[in-house]
Amino acid sequence: MMQMDRRxxxxxxxxxxxxxxxxxxxxxxxxxxxxxxVMIDSARKDEILLEAVQVxxxxxxxxxxxxxxxxxxxxxxxFHVTDLDGNKLTDDNIINCIEQxxxxxxxxxxxxxxxxxxxxxxxxxxxxLLSEVFAVLSDxxxxxxxxxxxxxxxxxxxxxxxxxxxxxYQIEDSNKIDTxxxxxxxxxxxxxxxRKSDLKMENSPLVSVQSCLDKGYSVLNIQSKDRPKLxxxxxxxxxxxxxxxxxxxxxxxxxxxxxxxxxxxxDGTPISSExxxxxxxxxxxxxxxxxxxxxxRLELRKADKPGLLAEVMRIFRENALYIxxxxxxxxxxxxxxxxxxxxxxxxxxxxxxxxxxxxxxGMVNLRVKEPxxxxxxxxxxxxxxxxxVLVSLGSLLRRNLYNFGLIKSYS
Length: 411
Fold this sequence. Notes:
- By secondary structure, the protein is α+β, with helices and mostly antiparallel strands.
- It folds into 3 domains: about 20-105, ACT domain (Alpha-Beta Plaits, 2-Layer Sandwich), CATH 3.30.70.260; about 115-200 and about 295-410, ACT domain (Alpha-Beta Plaits, 2-Layer Sandwich); about 205-290, ACT domain (Alpha-Beta Plaits), CATH 3.30.70.
- It is about 30% helix and about 35% strand.
- It starts with a helix and ends with a strand.
């Protein structure tokens, strides 16, 4: 009898622990006209803020405002979110997905890459390089399942997940892997005209660090142009640098974003030296600038088939489109790809060129998507001149891409 009572007590204790460690999530679509409010109440733990922001980012949501507060062992985070087009969320399925994803962040793990071969590539960037890379993979009967591509300061980095077309599984033939690596090395070493950008970054971020000695915090202020994944990149950088965010305010408008963080080291001490302040400023400025895409966003949705990606890349190259960032994936036999493109010298692509590309690929399959802040700038400038050509070697994969070799493969 006593054993049964003890077992029941233990069960109740375990249930209490689950309730304490499971974030409580509430979505509110009534109190804000232009955004959906997401409130997260959770027990404090390392990286909880990063995990929450990553969930919202992975769901392709833009965080327009936010408030982060830590009181002892508890966190209260409030985010005002929209879709990438700046619209309030109205789909109940998406809202339910947000709640379910956030409520399970304490159990989240990185997505497995079992069953795929992974290539990491870096090299000097140039127009048409991606077209050649994917043409080689298509020729060698490699099916690209997912890929991330970034360019920055004349360099390119890419992470490519692929399978063998014939078998449908990861590539285990060491000779074939060597052939892939050899041919891609030849493509990456072809640097007859390495692309160099003469454009200067306009609206560079302003980052400052001040001391709040009476409270024991370091106060971090950031002013920059708003863009998708801005908060994720900042929080990820702070987490990687072993800082803890205790309080934060995020506010974005059509003119830009203002972020304020109250931070400490993991041991509870604030930033103590000018050299450390300078390091924080440099690292955050670089993280913000790396993903500052200024190209036209093209979204491809089409039934997947062998060679589809190589075909799309060839059409882009023939129309002198320069890809500054790409996110490539396949879901249930459908290719879901996003490209940010400029012309060959980094300026905004002429609308006639975009229309020509869409006609060849399919007007229904390839759509033009422009963030709301870019639409406003175009209206104000009444010109086709583009902004800076600079994008991410960034934080989507967090620590994974900091130490590239020329090509690495994992099977």
